[in-house]
Amino acid sequence: MSEQRHRAVLHIGAPKCGSSALQTALSERPNLRGQDGTRYRYTAFVPDLKGWRVVRGRTVTWSARITPFGYGSWLDPKTAQGDIPFWARFTEEIAGTGGAVPILSNESWMSRSPVFAPHISQPLLAVGFLRPPLDWLNAAYWQWAVWGNSPFERWVRRRPHYTPGQWLSGWADIPGVTLRCSSASPDVMASFGRKVGIGNLTSEVQNASSPAALIGFLLRNRRYRPNVHAAAVEFVIQRWCRFTALKKAWAVPDDVVAELAIAMERETEIMRHVLPEEDAEEILSTPGWTEIDAAQRPCTAVDDLDELPKLLDALIEGLAWCRRAIGDTADARPDTPEGNDDVAIWDATIADVVDALISADLEWRRRRMPLILKAACRLHPQGERFMPRPIQIS
Questions:
Q1: What string of DSSP letters covers 123-151?
Q2: What is the DSSP string of 72-103?
Q3: Gap between the Cα atoms of 99 and 306, Å rounded
Q4: Are the C-beta atoms of 315 and 239 separated by less than 8 Å?
Q5: How many Å apart are CA 107 and CA 192, to the nearest integer?
Q6: How far apart are the C-alpha atoms of 148 and 226, rounded to whole Å?
Q7: Measured between alpha carbons, how far is 281 from 150 in angstroms, rounded to an integer?
Q8: Over its length of 394 residues, how does the chain's per-residue pLDDT go in tens digits?
Q9: For the chain, percent helix, then strand, then coil, each to nearest 5?
Q10: In Å, what is the CA distance from 380 to each residue of 311, 362, 387, 388?
Q11: Nearest one of 108, 105, 130 to 280, comparing CA atoms
């Protein structure tokens, strides 16, 4: 439970540390009550036909259900350019004048303390999450750099990517901010609830990285993910498919590990200084923090032909689950190219299943919207964006 009465709660990330799972849980259950009776209300900053607006409570739920991502959140201020009134709306929201303590979330905020500091004059609780550095770098590479065709070693040496001690130190230095932080495993929702004082949150969303075979398919078929920011199709696939039989993607070569271990010594020392002792101990006791070891893991090939049949099976099973959810009993299994070693033929078969899953997921999301919102929304044919008109649903 927080030590003082806070006017707002900021979930500040970090990226690749369970943010989407937490944001999904909060979007589905936006109105919360603390163990001390305090009311909390999850909010999001979303686009509509007249620009951008703040949505709260159940309106967050309906807005989140329209999107392929399944959650609402706030922007990274670095992307809030042009006429997007980010700082005006942020300042209004953290004033906490609506009768409930607002909760605002964005995974990128942990590294943005310098731009937030001038806009914070209220007592706030900032809650962050971290994962061990080697795992974080690997996940971050597959999430961002690989889509720009950047080799791992070039990407990781271009600039420091993971400096959690410095990030947290910036937030700890802002007057009025109480900083709490947890490990991103095993349960981000439960940890967030404990830090804020609202009990456990739950979500059906699991923190899972895409397997190497799916990343390879998406890299070869860029219409599904044309750039680093266009991750909608991957979210749809992850919602329905389970990839337990497929190889995980690993990109960190052994020669990077020794350099990383040296760099993290300073970061962990800063973390021990700026975090409450119990938070620092919880995070740094997680395996992989103080003993950084690649365990001689070989880097994963994303074009392994032997993985494609297993990828197709997982996608077919996910499509069947999605179709059952909308009452469609059509057979989801196409003719599989058994014994064929032509990747292009496998990709064509997999693409047919992915296209069917995108369509079925869009129908599933439409059915989850209330009638009033169906009439007030436009959906992109691929379901990549939502444009709700400015109506408030209580």
A1: -EEEEEEE--HHHHHHHHHHHTGGGGT--
A2: --PPPGGG--TT--HHHHHHHHHT--SSSEEE
A3: 57
A4: no
A5: 14
A6: 10
A7: 35
A8: 344 579 999 999 999 999 999 999 999 999 999 998 999 999 999 887 778 899 998 889 988 988 899 999 999 998 877 778 999 999 999 987 678 999 999 999 999 999 999 999 989 999 999 999 999 999 999 999 999 888 888 898 887 789 999 999 999 999 999 999 999 988 899 999 999 999 877 766 665 789 999 999 999 999 999 998 899 999 999 999 999 999 999 998 887 887 788 888 999 999 999 999 999 999 999 988 877 765 557 788 899 999 999 999 999 999 999 999 999 887 767 878 877 789 999 999 999 999 999 999 999 988 887 654 554 454 443 333 333 333 332 2
A9: 45, 10, 40
A10: 27, 10, 9, 12
A11: 130
Side chain identity at residue 135, one-letter code: D
**Dist CA 203 CA 211 (whole Å):** 22
For residue 118, the 8-state DSSP code is G
How far, in Å, CA of 141 to CA of 215, rounded?
Answer: 12
Amino acid at 32: L
What whole-number distance in Å separates Cα of residue 41 and Cα of residue 263? 39
Among 148, 149, 205, 190, CA closest to 27:
205
Q: Is the peptide bond before 280 cis (omega within 30 degrees of 0)?
A: no
| Contact of 314 with 246, CB cutoff 8 Å | yes
CA atoms of 114 and 323, how far apart (whole Å): 47
Distance between CA atoms of 248 and 54, rounded to whole angstroms? Answer: 38
Beta strand 39-48 with 31-33: parallel, antiparallel or unpaired?
antiparallel
Cβ-in-10-Å burial (0-12, 13-18, 19+) of 37 comes to exposed
Identify residue 301 by its one-letter amino acid code: A
> Tokens at residue 306, please?
């032997």
In angstroms, the CA 120 to CA 176 distance is 8
The answer to whether residues 110 and 12 touch, using CB atoms and an 8 Å cutoff, is: yes
Reduce the DSSP state of residue 301 to 3 states and report it: coil
Answering whether pTM is above 0.70, one says yes
Residues 58, 393 contacting (CB under 8 angstroms): yes
Residue listed under structure tokens 């992109």 = 380
